[in-house]
Structure formats: structure tokens, C-alpha cells
Amino acid sequence: MRQAWRVADVRAAEKTLMATVPEGALMQRAAAGLARRCALLLDDTGGVYGARVLLLVGSGDNGGDTLYAGAALARRGAQVRALLLSPDRVHLAGLAALRQAGGFTTADLPTRADLVLDGIVGIGASGGLRSAAAAIVDCLGDLRGRTGERPLIVAVDVPSGVRVDTGDVPGAAVTADVTVTFGCLKPAHVVGPAATRCGQIELVDIGLGPALVTDPAVRVAEAEDIAGWWPRPVATSDKYTRGVVGLATGSAGYPGAALLSTAGALAGPTGMVRYAGSAHREVVRAHPSVVAAPKVADAGRVQAWVCGSGLGTTEQARVELRSVLATALPVLLDADAITMLVGGAHATDLRRDAPLVLTPHDGEFKRLAGEAPGADRMAAAAKLAAWTNAVVLLKGDRTIVATPGGEIWANPTGSAALATAGSGDVLAGLLGSLLAAGLPAVRAAVAAAFVHGLAGRHAALDGPVTSAEVAAAVRPVLAGLLG
Predict the structure, then answer these.
(1) How many CB atoms lie within 10 A of CB 227?
(2) Cβ atoms within 10 Å of 43's Cβ, excluding its own
């Protein structure tokens, strides 16, 4: 599991650590790690000696990190030039170190560079580059290195122009090939459109870990976490002990949602799927192992319910929703079920002790919360989770999972391939299967989003993707993940 901290927590940890080490030690550690990564990148394109390195240097410590790293590269024979964007506020010691090592400053953007270090602004910036910096960044693609290609761009701590605490990109910003960050990850590395601008992320250890005493702002699951959480049958398992998931999804008018959510559930860890709805004949025809009934009251015993995908918003649909919420079982509400919550008619139905999971996309979120998620998707999801006392899975390229207690996870496996009709139905069925197998709601949501994202990527290897292909890809993805 990876974790990321907000700027205020990072600053507090840095202050604590700086009181225990010699002055300037943290900057030297950061610069050494940055220079080491840049040297490795240059080794892949002809070596450090003679390489043209351009430093884009802003004010403050971020500029200092950049200048000291440039000095280290200059001592190894690189031709280092620093373009100072704020000459009157430059880090003077860093600039002196660069000049002493043989580096120079330049007033203009050169035409050639093999590597560019983005040290324009650091984690203290509020986002959005000013016009002069934006104009320089916009021209970086015109530069050429010794291979004839554009230079590699390395962001120092974060790509300049992003909002560090939210992952939002409110204006012009750098798009990096590699981001070298110091001490810990920050939210912009893992959430929102900023994450896609970071490129490959390398974390340099500067000794900050013990000083980070607050909870992280966001957590990111890795493959090992998902494999460790995923329920697996044992020698004594049977179809009931593995879990039975109930699906109140689809309808005679929208049987596709029923079929796709069923496919998602069957790909999960449960031993049995029960379907309840007016598409029951179509479901059994496509999936003979499913036990089907026309309504929830006749479905039989289950360990968790999935409700909403393609259900409609008729009075009968509301009866089914109330029937599901009246149980003492974990419940996932998706699509039409979320829409039916709007207006408060089901407010009393949400007063339940059993786990509840909501899986809105942005439009459903806006209808339910009264406003769009906005720039800070983590805060928006956490607010809705607290209000509904539910785990909220806010869909998107970097899907966010939030708990009522404020714990936040970001999914790293999102794919544009999942932007296809019915993909959410597959996710709902898969997540419901995990709930029925006994996984806690937050882990079920995180694991389902992770595997669903990998399935989208796997399916996209063969070209444009349909949701049925996403469902079919879940099994081979799990085979690789679980070994």
C-alpha cells in the first residue's frame, strides 16, 4: 500500500525533522536523489558527460533542490544551464553551488536540451502557472536533444501548475516524464488529472517517515494488497460458505444491466448468485447457474444485495429498493437506486447498521449531493460518505473510495477503456460478490475498482472494449493477480 500526505502535514514533518539534522541537510538529500535519477535517465541516452541539461528554476526551496541537483550533474560533465524565472528570489546558495560546479544561467530558452528539470514551483504553490512560466513550458516540446527527440522532462517534487492537495489542474501545468518527489507521496501524485501529468514517480527517502505522525490524506492499494484481501475457497468451502450475492438489477426493458451485473458477480469470489427482477428469464438463459426470481421477496437467502443498475424508478422499483434496504445485510446501491434516493423519500431507509456502499458517477453524485464533486474529489466523496453513512465509490479515471470516518483510497488502475455503457454494472456485480464473500465494505470497494480497472486494460489489448468484454477479462486478470 502506498500513502500520500497533504502539504500541511508534510511541512509539519519537515519542521520536526529539520530540528534534528544539520541546516540544509534535507535539501542536500533531496538534491542528491534528484541528481541520481537524472543521471540514470541520461545514461539511457548517451551518458551524463556532455549532456545538455536545462534547469527551470523558480523561487524557494524547490528552486534550491533543482540548482543543487544541477550542480551535481555539472560536476559529472553535463552542460547545465539555469533559466531563472524569479531572479530576485532565487536560492542564492544553490545558485552559487551551480556556478562553482561550472554551470551557468541563461536569459532565454535554448533550442537544444537532453533533459529539463522542472523546478518552477513546489508543493507550496496553489496551482496554475503564471503566463511567463506557461509560455516557457509551452515551448519545451520544440527543444531537441542529441537523439533528435524532445528532451525528457523531470518534475521536482510535483509538476509545476498542479494543485498538490487535490490533484486538480486549474490552468497551465507541466507534463513530466518522471517526477522525483521527496519524503513521501502527495495527493497530486495519485488523484485527479495531476496524477496523469506526473509520469513515472520516484520517491527519494530523506528520512521524513518517522516525522509523519498524521494519517495519510489518501491511500493507494497495490497488487499485493488486493491479492491478500481477496477471499479464496478452502477445502471445506461450499457454495453457501463462499457467500451468496443477490442482484436486484435490470428489468424487462433493460435486461442488459441484469446480464452484466450478473456476469460481474459470477466472476467474483462468491459461490452462488441469486437474481431478483423482471429480467429473470433472460438472466437464467444466459447464466444457467444463477437462481432467479421475479422480485426480491422471492429471491431466497443471500449475504449481500446489489440494487439499482437498470432497475428503473417506477413504484415497483421503489418497492424493491425498500425491500433490499430493510435487510440487515450489506447493500450496494448503484445507478437507478441512487437516483431514487434523491428527494429524501428513502432517508429513513438509509438509517441502517449494516454496511452500505454507493457507487455514483459524477452525474449521480450531483443529483444526490446537490452539487458536482468539483476540484477536490476526495473531499467531496468524504462529505457524501459522512452524510449517508456509507462507503462511497466515486467513479472516474482515478476512482475515489471514501468511508464515513474520512478514510480515502484512490484507485491506480483506471482506464479510458472503461468509459463504455454497462461497465459500471459489471463493477457493481463484482463488488457485491466481494461483500457477500465477507470482505469489509471499504476493502470490497477498493478491490473491485482495482480488478475492474485491470480488466478494462486487459480487454483493451484487443481493441475497442465493450462491457461484456470487461466482464470476461476479470477472470484472466484475477488468475494473474492471485497466482
Answers:
(1) 15
(2) 11
Q: Which of 191, 174, 84 is nearest to 129 (CA)?
A: 174
Nearest of 229, 283, 246, 260 to residue 448 by alpha carbon? 229
CATH number at residue 347: 3.40.1190.20
For 232, counting Cβ atoms within 10 Å of its Cβ (0-12 exposed, 13-18 middle, 19+ buried), the class is exposed
* Number of domains, the chain: 2
One domain, residues 142 and 206: yes
Amino acid at 353: D
DSSP 382-447: HHHHHHHTSEEEE-STT-EEE-TTS-EEE-S---GGG-STTHHHHHHHHHHHHHHTT--HHHHHHH
Same domain (yes/no): 134, 266: no
Please identify, among 194, 214, 234, the residue that sits at the C-terminal boundary of a domain: 214
Question: Do 13 and 153 belong together in one domain?
Answer: yes
Domain range for 291: 223-482
Q: What is each CA distance from 163 to 238, 251, 296, in whole angstroms?
A: 50, 43, 46
pLDDT in tens, 79-108: 999 999 999 999 999 999 999 999 999 999
Backbone angles phi, psi at 265, to 5 degrees: -65, -40
Per-residue pLDDT, averaged over 155-167, amounts to 97
Digit-coded pLDDT (tens) for 314-357: 999 999 999 999 999 999 999 999 999 998 778 778 889 999 99
**DSSP tag of 298:** G
Asked if 258 and 290 touch (Cβ cutoff 8 Å), the reply is no
**Phi, psi dihedrals of residue 33, rounded to the nearest 5°:** -65, -40
> Is the domain of 298 the same as that of 172?
no
Listed residues 180, 214, 248: the one ending a domain: 214
- Distances in whole angstroms, Cα of residue 384 to Cα of each of 326, 367, 375, 400, 427: 21, 12, 15, 12, 20
Q: Which residues contact 288 (CB under 8 A, 6 or more apart)?
A: none
CATH number at residue 83: 3.40.50.10260
Alpha-carbon 8 to chain mean position: 21
In angstroms, the CA 29 to CA 31 distance is 6
Could you give the CA distance from residue 338 to residue 111 in angstroms, rounded to a whole number?
Answer: 55
Are 207 and 241 found together in one domain? no
| Residues 7 and 130 reside in one and the same domain | yes
The per-residue pLDDT for range 187-246, each reduced to its tens digit, is: 999 999 999 999 999 999 999 999 999 999 999 999 999 999 999 999 999 999 999 999
Residue the block writes with cell 522542472: 118
Task: Quickly tell me which residue has 476540484 as its cell.
Answer: 375
| Same-domain check for residues 254 and 325 | yes
Q: What is the pLDDT of residues 130-153, one digit of tens each?
A: 999 999 999 999 999 998 999 999
When pLDDT is cut at 50, 70 and 90, the band that residue 477 belongs to is very high
